[in-house]
Design goal:
The chain is an alpha+beta fold and 345 residues long. The protein is built from seven helices and 21 strands. Strands 1-19-16-21-14-13 form a six-stranded antiparallel β-sheet. Strands 2-3-10-5-8-12 form a six-stranded antiparallel β-sheet. It binds 2,5-dihydroxybenzoic acid (GTQ). 2,5-dihydroxybenzoic acid binds next to strand 3 and strand 10.
C-alpha cells in the first residue's frame, strides 16, 4: 500500500479554513483508521494478581465507607487504553468489588449489563429484579441492562467479586446512565427453578416465553459438574468448555459480552484461535500459564488477565494431577451481532 499525503503537506491557510468549517481531510488519517489487514488495538495483554490487589482493596474498606463509595471497586484498567478510561478492552470493564459484613450497596439500575464472578467470602447476596441471589465462590450472577440490583452481606468475612461490565461500549455509544432506587422487596421464591433442569423450559398453554433471560444466577457447582462430565464423556475433546446461555433461546446469557467456563485437563496445553473479540481470563481453580502475544502470565487462583482481539492465546495447566478451571469473558456476542466477528484460526 503506498503512502498517502500528510497533513503537513497542505498549505496552512487551507488547513485553517477547513478547521474553521469543521472539516477534516481524510487522506492523512486514512491509514490510521483503516490499517491494512489487522486492526490497531489499544488493548494490551495485562495481568492483575489477586494477592497484590487484595490488600489494596481491603484498605479501600477503611478509606471509602459505603456512603462515600456506593460501589467499592478497584477497576482493573488496561494501560493501553489509558487508566483513566477504566477499560480492560474496547468493550469490557473489569473491577474487583468489596463488600464488608453488614454493608449494603444501594439499589440502582443502569443501561450497561453486568455480571459478577464471586471470588471469596460467604453470606453476601445480590438482589436482581426482586430475586435474591446468594453469592458463593465461582458463581456467576447476572444484572442485565435495566434491572434493579443491590448487594447486601449477612456474613462475617469480607466478600469480594469480579465485576465484568460492557460499560465502555455503552458509554462510547453515549447510552450509559444510572437510576437510583429504593431497597427492593424480595420475592419469596426463586425465578429460575423451572429453567435449571437441562433440556426443559416452561411452556404454559404451549407458549414459550420471549422475555429476558430467566436465569440470573449460574451456580459454580453446576457449571463445574458439567465440565467434569463433558471431560469424562469425551476424552478426545480438546476444548472442554461451556457457555453461559439463556435457556429460553440457547443464545448468549447477555446481549453484548459472552461468558464461558473452560476446564484444562491435568497438564493440558490448549491453543485458542485468533478471533476478533478481546478476551478476559480469570482463574477459578488451579494454576494456569497464559501466553498472550509476547506476554507470559502465571495465574494463581483469583488472578485475571486480558488479551486483545485477533491474537491466539495459549493456556497451559501447570498442574499435572489436577484439572484447572478458567472463567472467560469476551466480546463475541457484540462482534457477531455487528457482523465483524472473525475466527482466523
Ligand atoms: O455493582 O452495580 O464495578 O454499578 C461498576 C458499576 C459495579 C454494581 C461496578 C456498578 C456496579
Amino acid at each position: 500500500m503506498h503512502e498517502l499525503g500528510r497533513l503537513e503537506d497542505l498549505p496552512q491557510d487551507y488547513r485553517d479554513e477547513l478547521t474553521k468549517l469543521n472539516l477534516v481531510p481524510l487522506w492523512p488519517s486514512l491509514r490510521a483508521v483503516l490499517p491494512p489487514n489487522v486492526p490497531t488495538r489499544k488493548t494490551q495483554p495485562t495481568f492483575w494478581a489477586y494477592d497484590t490487589l487484595r490488600p489494596l482493596l481491603m484498605r479501600a474498606g477503611d478509606l471509602a465507607p459505603m456512603e462515600k463509595a456506593e460501589r467499592r471497586v478497584l477497576v482493573m484498567a488496561n494501560p493501553g487504553h489509558g487508566l483513566e478510561k477504566m477499560q480492560a478492552s474496547a468493550a469490557m470493564y473489569l473491577g474487583m468489588q468489596l463488600l464488608l459484613p453488614g454493608e449494603w450497596a444501594p439499589s440502582h439500575r443502569h443501561t450497561p449489563n453486568a455480571v459478577r464472578m464471586i471470588v471469596e467470602g460467604e453470606g453476601a447476596w445480590t438482589t436482581v429484579d426482586g430475586e435474591k441471589c446468594p453469592m458463593a465462590r465461582g458463581d456467576l450472577i447476572l444484572t442485565p441492562t435495566g434491572l434493579w440490583h443491590e448487594h447486601g452481606h449477612d456474613g462475617d468475612q469480607p466478600v469480594v467479586w469480579l465485576d465484568v461490565l460492557d460499560l465502555p461500549i455503552v458509554y462510547f455509544m453515549e447510552a450509559s446512565y444510572v437510576i437510583p432506587g429504593e431497597r427492593q422487596d424480595t420475592k419469596a421464591s426463586r425465578g429460575d427453578r423451572a429453567w435449571s433442569r437441562a433440556g426443559v423450559v416452561p411452556s404454559p398453554v404451549f407458549e414459550r416465553s420471549s422475555k429476558r433471560n430467566p436465569v440470573l444466577r449460574y451456580p459454580w457447582a453446576e457449571a463445574r459438574a458439567a465440565l467434569l462430565g463433558l471431560a469424562a464423556d469425551q476424552p478426545d475433546l480438546e476444548a472442554v468448555q461451556v457457555t453461559y446461555v439463556n435457556p429460553e433461546t440457547g443464545g448468549d446469557a447477555e446481549n453484548i459480552l459472552g461468558f464461558y467456563s473452560l476446564m484444562l485437563r491435568p497438564g493440558q496445553t490448549l491453543r485458542l484461535p485468533a478471533r476478533s473479540p478481546a478476551q478476559v481470563f480469570h482463574l477459578i481453580e488451579g494454576s494456569v500459564q497464559a501466553l498472550i502475544v509476547d506476554s507470559r502470565f502465571n495465574l494463581a487462583e483469583a488472578d485475571t488477565c486480558c488479551a486483545p482481539g485477533y491474537e491466539a492465546v495459549t493456556l497451559t495447566n501447570l498442574q499435572a494431577d489436577k484439572p484447572a478451571f478458567v472463567f472467560i469473558a469476551d466480546e463475541s456476542p457484540l462482534h457477531r451481532k455487528l457482523g465483524v466477528y472473525e475466527n482466523r484460526g
